[in-house]
Design brief:
By secondary structure, the chain is of the alpha/beta class. It has helices at 37-43, 61-64, 67-73, 85-88, 91-97, 169-179, 198-204, and strands at residues 2-9, 14-21, 26-30, 50-55, 78-81, 112-114, 119-122, 125-131, 140-143, 147-151, 154-155, 158-159, 187-190, 196-197. The relative contact order is 0.15. Bound molecules: zinc ion (ZN).
C-alpha cells in the first residue's frame, strides 16, 4: 500500500508525486517539474523522505526538466519509458519549442528503461508500468492496486494534447481505450489538475465518449 503526496510545482504547475510504501517507508518521486521547486519542497519535508527512485511518466520539459537538479540531491535509480528516449533527448531544446529558451534543460541520467508490463518494486509495493503513447511517443503510467499515475494521458474531464512534436492522436485513442480496461476504482493522479477515478472519467469525460 502506498501513501500519495501531490506536489504541484514550477511555472507549468505540474503535479509531481511523492509516494511512500507504507510498510517500509521507501519513497519514489514521480516526475520532476522543470525548476528547483520540487527539490526545495522535498528538502523542506520533515522527516526527510527516503527517496529510493525517480519515475518519469514522460519526457516533456514540465515533467522531466528538473531531473538533473533532483539527481544532485537524490542520487537514485531513474526510470524512463523506453519509447520516450527520442523525446527525452530533446530536453535541451524543448524550452525553445515553447518560446522559452531559458527553460532548455540538460537530460540527466537514466538508469532503467521500462516497457509495457514491467514491474518495479518499491519496498513491499509492486508498481506496474503500462505504456500509453499518444501525448508523447512513450508516455506511460505507473500503478498499484489502488492508484495510477498517468502523466498527461488523461485529466479530470480532459485528455492530453497530441499536437506537440511526436504526439499521435490515433495512438492516444488506443491508449485511452487500453487504460479504461484497468480497474475503474483506480484513483487517477494526473500531471495537471485534480484527482479522479478511471470509472468517473469513463462515465463523464467528454473525450472518452467514443468508449461509451
Ligand atoms: Zn506532457
Amino acid at each position: 500500500m502506498i501513501e500519495v503526496k501531490c506536489l504541484t510545482v514550477g511555472a507549468f504547475q505540474v503535479n509531481t508525486y511523492l509516494i511512500k510504501d507504507a510498510a517500509t517507508g521507501a519513497c519514489a518521486v514521480i516526475d520532476t517539474g522543470e525548476s528547483d521547486d520540487l527539490v526545495e519542497r522535498l528538502q523542506a519535508l520533515q522527516p526527510s523522505p527516503d527517496v529510493q527512485m525517480i519515475l518519469l511518466t514522460h519526457a516533456h520539459l514540465d515533467h522531466a526538466g528538473a531531473l538533473v537538479a533532483l539527481q544532485k540531491v537524490f542520487d537514485v535509480p531513474t526510470y524512463l519509458p523506453r519509447l520516450e528516449i527520442p523525446l527525452f533527448e530533446t530536453l535541451p531544446e524543448q524550452g525553445t519549442w515553447f518560446g522559452a529558451p531559458h527553460m532548455n534543460r540538460p537530460c540527466g541520467r537514466i538508469d532503467h528503461l521500462v516497457d509495457d508490463g514491467d514491474v518495479i518494486q518499491l519496498g513491499e509495493t509492486t508498481l506496474q508500468f503500462i505504456s500509453a503513447p499518444g501525448h508523447t511517443p512513450g508516455q506511460g503510467c505507473y500503478y498499484d492496486e489502488s492508484n495510477i499515475f498517468v502523466g498527461d494521458t488523461i485529466f479530470a474531464g480532459s485528455v492530453g494534447r497530441t499536437d506537440l512534436p511526436m504526439g499521435d492522436p490515433i495512438l492516444a485513442q488506443k491508449s485511452l481505450a487500453k487504460l479504461m480496461k484497468l480497474s475503474g476504482k483506480l484513483q487517477v493522479h494526473s500531471g495537471h489538475g485534480a484527482v479522479t477515478t478511471l470509472a468517473q472519467e469513463l462515465t463523464s469525460n467528454p473525450f472518452l465518449q467514443f468508449l461509451r
